[in-house]
Design brief:
Elements (H helix, E strand, L loop, with lengths): L17 H6 L4 E5 L2 E4 L4 E4 L2 H4 L8 H13 L11 H13 L4 E7 L2 H18 L7 E5 L8 H6 L3 H5 L8 E4 L5 H4 L15 H10 L4 E6 L15 H12 L2 E5 L13 H5 L5 E4 L11 E6 H9 L18 H16 L2 H17 L7 E7 L2 E6 L8 H12 L2 E2 L1 E3 L2 E4 L7 H19 L4
Parallel strand pairs: 3-13, 5-6, 5-7, 7-8, 8-9
Antiparallel strand pairs: 1-2, 2-3, 4-10, 9-10, 11-12, 12-15, 14-15
Helix pairs in contact: 3-13, 4-13, 5-12, 14-16, 15-16
Length: about 450
């Protein structure tokens, strides 16, 4: 290993135990297809698509060449009162991927920005219709919607909120759907829990009144909290209640979009049309930051048509919205998904992936396994008084054995690139099993 020509201390790392990491860093220096290369030269099988985002595999030539060509042609183009072709082309492609009249794309630079944008659009929509009193935004316990002020507020992961409090007023939360007593070791959608959607009507609407609620935002499958799969009928019931009371339903598909569930988006997988879909990550295969909110036609028309002629209709946007390099990366990524039929490939691998991860059921410390599409969560019993310690042990042990996993507390999450083979699935899960069995013989 070559000596580092940089020091570690001055980079304040996000969502990282900085002191722990810098004492024993795990550095990645290159990547190709299904593997990273670690600083010490070892190949690391990517079991998490980077961070739920490298769906087409690493350093795909088609994408990198498109970015290079864009940088040499138009390095930046303003998008306020000006335009360039890239984002218009991407918006047209997204319209074709999404169901019904999800037709209008507003571009951002991340999932966090997409969520905050969707929440603002929801408020602007109701105001444009003369219902500006609809201010309440409803998230869900154990939900993750990024780290903006809005996303943190509607999110429901306690450590993400603890230091900041409730950043926005008029926010409430539905209960989460995970219950080990009723739905542990479910394969696909659990049968128990659809009734939890009725909490929207029985508790939240009863408390705040439907006329004051602007939107409900949920992940079709809650990813960052440890892969919480929706019970059968749950999302359908949320859609029914929202329709009944004039409440917008937002699907946060930053993780579940672009083939992760064996379909273009979760809304296609579940057959439900939300009012808005947020996305990022797989949109550009993570090569250049880019996110989007895609809204149904009636939202766009209500906001745009309520403004005076020649006036700006929505006072919102980002300097890098629809950046030329991001748009080029998105178009090349969408081409790869289509030409290599990666969404269909993910669907065909789903059963093999499911059987593989559930083979870990008897491994030490495992208390639950759940999965849908190419997502799986393996929940470990926590060390008494030390939540997260066992998950961290699994993360480090897996890296030392040549696989990259993701942990949330004591839950191991797997979400490999969609180009993974059955043999690589077996290698990934088999190595993780070795790690868990080794952990079974150690005391923390």
């Amino acid at each position: 290993m070559k000596p580092r020509d940089y020091e570690l201390e001055t980079f304040w790392m996000p969502f990282t135990a900085n002191r722990q990491f810098k004492a024993a860093p795990r550095m990645l220096v290159s990547a190709k297809d299904m593997h990273y290369i670690a600083e010490d030269g070892r190949r690391i099988l990517d079991g998490t698509a980077g961070l739920w985002c490298v769906n087409a595999g690493h350093c795909r030539v088609r994408i990198t060449e498109a970015i290079k060509a864009a940088a040499e042609t138009l390095d930046y183009g303003p998008i306020f009162q000006m335009g360039h072709p890239g984002p218009f082309k991407v918006a047209q492609r997204l319209k074709k991927l999404l169901p019904a009249d999800l037709d209008y794309a507003f571009f951002t630079n991340s999932g966090s920005e997409s969520v905050d944008t969707a929440l603002k659009i929801a408020l602007a929509y109701h105001r444009a219709r003369g219902e500006g009193h609809r201010r309440w935004l409803i998230g869900r316990e154990r939900g993750y919607h990024g780290v903006g002020f809005g996303g943190t507020s509607v999110g429901g992961i306690p450590p993400n909120r603890r230091a900041f409090g409730n950043l926005l007023p008029c926010v409430d939360h539905l209960p989460h759907t995970h219950d080990l007593e009723h739905n542990s070791f479910s394969r696909g959608q659990p049968s128990w829990g659809a009734h939890l959607a009725d909490e929207l009507e029985n508790r939240v609407i009863a408390l705040h009144d439907a006329s004051s609620i602007a939107a409900v935002i949920v992940e079709p499958v809650a990813g960052s909290t440890g892969v919480l799969v929706p019970p059968k009928g749950y999302l359908e019931r949320l859609r029914q209640i929202c329709d009944q009371h004039g409440i917008l339903l937002i699907f946060d598909e930053v993780i579940t979009g672009f083939g992760r569930l064996g379909a273009s988006f979760g809304c296609e997988r579940f057959g439900i049309v939300p009012d808005m879909v947020t996305m990022a990550k797989g949109l550009t295969n993570a090569t250049v930051p880019m996110g989007a909110v895609v809204a149904r036609r009636h939202l766009y028309e209500a906001i745009v048509n309520s403004a005076p002629e020649n006036a700006i209709e929505l006072f919102h946007g980002y300097t890098y919205s629809g950046h030329p390099l991001a748009a080029a990366a998105a178009l090349a990524t969408l081409d790869l998904y289509q030409e290599e039929r990666l969404f269909e490939g993910a669907k065909s691998l789903e059963r093999h992936f499911e059987d593989a991860v559930h083979s870990l059921r008897e491994a030490p410390h495992v208390v639950d396994i759940r999965n849908l599409g190419m997502m799986a969560g393996i929940e470990l019993a926590p060390v008494p008084g030390r939540p997260g310690a066992r998950g961290q042990q699994a993360l480090v042990g897996a890296f030392e054995r040549g696989i990259l996993t993701r942990v949330t507390g004591d839950i191991i999450a797997l979400s490999p690139p969609l180009i993974i083979s059955k043999q690589q699935i077996d290698e990934l899960v088999g190595t993780l099993g070795e790690v868990l069995r080794e952990m079974g013989g150690k005391n923390l």
